[in-house]
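User: Second chain of the day. Same drill as before.
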Amino acid sequence: MTKKILMVCLGNICRSPLAEGILKSKLTTDFYVDSAGIGGWHSGEQPDQRAIKTASNKGISISNQKARKISVADFDKFDVLYAMDKENLKELLLLAPNESGKRKVKLLLNEAYPNQNDDVPDPYYGDLEDFESVFTLLENALEIIATKIKKTANQ
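Assistant: Same format as last time:
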């Protein structure tokens, strides 16, 4: 069975598309990785051009991604939903249709840095350097997550 992972941020144009692209680059096709936003303001749009450029500079293409708003159905479709920050986490827990759905929601950086409750900073109002910092933070955390996911999938 394919493990399904959803990355969630506010608008699905900065952090979650980067996280989706990075994790896809670290996993095989035995895994399905997608991203969504809490809000639907950017639905159908490509990721932010600064996110596309940052990923491209690291050899990862995210330009084909299209922003979408999270739906209640995602809690059934995905095995785990990773929130980029505590506010996204709170919104996901409110949207979850039941306790089973709530158990699937995790704060992304806690997977790499347990119980630190750190947010992935939103680079939207920053510059390219802020996107690069977020990329590095995500890449480090997602390397740890990818290793954990592969290990549990092989058990």
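Residues 3-153 form a domain with the Rossmann fold fold (CATH 3.40.50.2300).

User: Great, on to the next one.
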